Amino acid sequence: MNASTMIGTHVDVRDLVVEFGKRTALDGVDLQLDTGVHGLLGPNGAGKTTLMRVLATVARSTSGSVSLLDHDLSKQRDLRMVRRRLGYLPQQFGYYPRFTVREFVEYFAWLKEMTPSAVPLAVDHAIERVGLADRADDRLKKLSGGMLRRAGIAQAIVNDPDVLLLDEPTAGLDPEQRVEFRELLRTIGVDSCVLVATHLVEDVAVACTHVTVVSDGRAVFRGTPDDLVAAGEDTSDGDSPIERGYTAAIRAARKR
Amino acid sequence: MSWHVTGEALSAYASGRIADSDAWSVEMHLTACERCRAALAAEAATDVDLSTAIRESWPGIAANLSSQGRVRRGSRSRELIVLIAAGPAARWAWFTAAVVVLALAAGLGAVTPFGRGQEIPLLGVVAPLLPILGVAASYGSGLDDAHEVIASTPGGGIRLLLLRSASVLAVTLPVGLIAGAVTGYGSPIPWLAASLALILTTLALASVTGVGRAAAIVGAAWVTGLAMSAAGDVTQAAPALLDPDAVPVWLLVSVAAVAVVALRRQAFNYTSLPAHPRLEN
Ligand SMILES: Nc1ncnc2c1ncn2[C@@H]1O[C@H](COP(=O)(O)OP(=O)(O)OP(=O)(O)O)[C@@H](O)[C@H]1O
Ligand SMILES: [Mg+2]
Ligand SMILES: [Zn+2]
Known about the structure:
Protein name (chain B): Anti-sigma factor
CATH topology of the largest domain in chain A: Rossmann fold
Keywords (chain B): Membrane, Transcription, Transcription regulation, Transmembrane, Transmembrane helix
Helix content of chain B: 55-70%
Radius of gyration of chain A: 18 Å
Strand content of chain B: under 5%
Number of strands of chain B: 3
Number of domains of chain A: 2
Strand order of the largest sheet of chain B: 2-3
Largest interface: A-B, 66 and 55 residues
Order of helices and strands of chain A: EEEEHEEHEHHHEHEHEEHH
Radius of gyration of chain B: 28 Å
Number of domains of chain B: 2
Oligomer: heterodimer
Bound molecules: adenosine-5'-triphosphate, magnesium ion, zinc ion
Distance between the termini of chain B: 31 Å
Organism (chain B): Phytoactinopolyspora halophila
Strand order of the largest sheet of chain A: 7-8-9-4-10-11
InterPro entries (chain B): Anti_sigma_zinc_sf, Znf_put
C-alpha cells in the first residue's frame, strides 16, 4: 500500500546524454521513476554511476532533460529545494576518520539544511535504521568496511529523502546485513523513490519493485524483476532465473 | 513539502491497522509536517477509544522520553561548529602550521635587514597569503574527503565556502596580529586590508575557475606584485602594496569582489567538484 500521495513524477529523465571528451557514458537514457525500490543493473562501465551522479545533481548532462520531484534540474533556483529532498551514497565516498558515526551523520543533516530541532532525533533514527546504534559514538576510523558503508547509508537517509540514490550500497555488507538492508530499502520505498545501482542481481530479485538494465550508456530493459526472469527463459547462462534474464537482456541489446 | 499522508493511511495509522513499514514512513512524515499532525489529531479525536488511550498512556511515555535524541541539541551554533569542524582547515595540523609560519615570518622580518636600511615586511607578505591557502585546502582541492556527497547537498555551495573562509580568517588574523605586536611590526592595517581583498578576490575568481585555481592565481599575483613594487622603488619603507596609502584601494577591491561573488553565487552550486574538472561543463 502506498501510504502517501505525491504529485507528479519523482525522477523524470528524457534523452539524457553525458559525454566525457570523446567517450559517451550515457547515450540517450529515458527513465521515469516513482515511489518504490528501483534496481539499476549493468556491467562495469555501463554508465550506472554516471546516471547516479547526474541524478544526485553532482554531474551535469551534456544534453537532455532531467527533473526531480517536478523540478527541472537546469533551473538553478530549484536546485536547492531538490537537494534538500535528496539522499545520495556515492560508489566511493570519503569520510572524516576522526568523526564519530553520530557526528558524521549530523554533519550531513546540517548540510541538507534540516530544521535544527529535528536534527538530533533524525540522526539517531538514521543510525538505528542501519543497525549502528551500538557503535554510534565510535570514530569512523575504527569501523570495518561494511560498517562504514552503513554509516554512509545513514547519512543518505537522515533527511528522510524523497529521492534516495544508492550506488553499490551492499558492497562489503555481510549476508545478514544485506538481508536487513533489503528490508530497510523496502520500508523507505513505501513513500520515497529509491534507486539502487548494483552488480548483485540477487539484491534486485529480492528487494526491488522495478528493474532497469543499462548497457553501453543505454537503458536496454525496464520492467519488474518477474519480467526480467521471463526474459531469460530461453537462455541457460547464469545461475539463477533472474541472472539468466539479465544476461539475455544484455545480449539482446548488444546484438542490435 | 509536496505531498501528504492520505486520509486513508492516516485513519489506518490512527486505528493501528497499518503495516509496520508504512507506519515508519507515516511517523517520519508526521515529525516534519504540521498539517498532517493536525489531520491525525482530528482523526484520532473522532475515535473515542483512541483518545482515552492516548490520554491515559501519555504521562508514562513522556516520563521515558528524552526531549531530543542523543545528539547534541540542534541549534544554529551547533550547526556552525559541526560544519566548520569538518573542514581540514580546522584540523590542528593546519592551525599549528599557520601559527608557526606567521611567527617565523614576523620574527625573521624583525631581525633581517633589507637593502638600504629597510626591513623585509615578511609578516605583511605572508599574512594575506595564508588565508587563501587555508581556504583552498579546506574547500577547493578535493581534500575535503566527502566532497562528492557534499556537492549533492543544498548547504554545500557558497554557504559552506563562506563559512570555511571566515573560519580560516578567524584563525590567521588574530595570530598575525599577535605575532606583529610581539615583534614590533608596524601598523597591521595595510596587511589586514590586503588579506581581506585577497581572500574575497579568490572567492570571486573561484566562481569562474574553482577555488583551487583561484587561490593559486591570486597567491602568485600577490607575490609577483610585491616583488615588482619592492624592486621598482627602493626608497620606500615598505612595498607599495603594503603601504598605508594602498588601504583604500584594497577596500575598493574588496567591495568589487563581494559584488562579483553575490552576482555569481549560483556558479558555486557545482564548483565543489575539483576532482572531476570535465564534469564542470
Ligand atoms: N570523470 C570521468 N571522466 C572520464 N570518463 C568517465 C568519467 N566517469 C566515468 N567515465 C566513463 O564513463 C563510462 C561509464 O562509467 P560509470 O562509472 O558510469 O560506469 P558504471 O556502470 O558505474 O561501472 P561500474 O559497474 O564499474 O561501477 C566509463 O566508460 C567510464 O570510463
Ligand atoms: Mg559505478
Ligand atoms: Zn503532510
